[in-house]
């Protein structure tokens, strides 16, 4: 992985919004580039509950909001296991696929249920998550 992209991901993980904005504004990086685990900057920001970074990344017209990592998880899958309904709402408003399955056949709703995230379950149901999708 290129050094510049590795630094970009570190900045996403650590919440350095000014550095992220600068790189995005200068269009110096492929915002959908993946690390060795197949994770994008958006997925990493969601895993660290960096709302400000998620907001910034979603402003990029080239963002692939439904990009899947090596486990088939999207940013929405990851956000649904965290403690941040704001990020889940934001992803859904930007067109995240609410019923996409990961490699285990699990939807974001399934993951929210399995981690006991009632507030996120409510958000997903309000956004028309399929309650009858079967997992593997």
TrEMBL record:
Keyword Repeat assigned: yes
Stored Pfam families: Ank_2
Family annotation (InterPro entries): Ankyrin_rpt, Ankyrin_rpt-contain_sf
UniProt keyword list: ANK repeat, Repeat
Keyword Ligase included in the entry's annotation: no
Repeat positions for ANK: 71-103, 104-136
Source domain of life: Eukaryota
Gene3D superfamilies cross-referenced by the UniProt entry: Ankyrin repeat-containing domain
This protein's name: Putative ankyrin repeat protein
Organism: Anaeromyces robustus
Lineage of the species this protein comes from: Eukaryota, Fungi, Fungi incertae sedis, Chytridiomycota, Chytridiomycota incertae sedis
